[in-house]
Amino acid sequence: MSQARLSPGRADDPLIIAGVSYRSRLLVGTGKYRDMDETRRAIEASGAEIVTVAIRRTNIGQSPGEPNLLDVVPPSRYTLLPNTAGCYTARDAVRTCRLARELLDGHSLVKLEVLGDEKTLFPDITATLDAAEELVKDDFHVMVYTNDDPIIARRLAEMGCVAVMPLAAPIGSGLGIRNPYNIHFIVEEATVPILVDAGVGTASDAAIAMELGCDGVLMNTAIAAARDPVRMAVAMRKGIEAGREAFLAGRMPRKRYASASSPLEGTIS
Question: What does the pLDDT read at residue 1?
Answer without folding.
Answer: 47
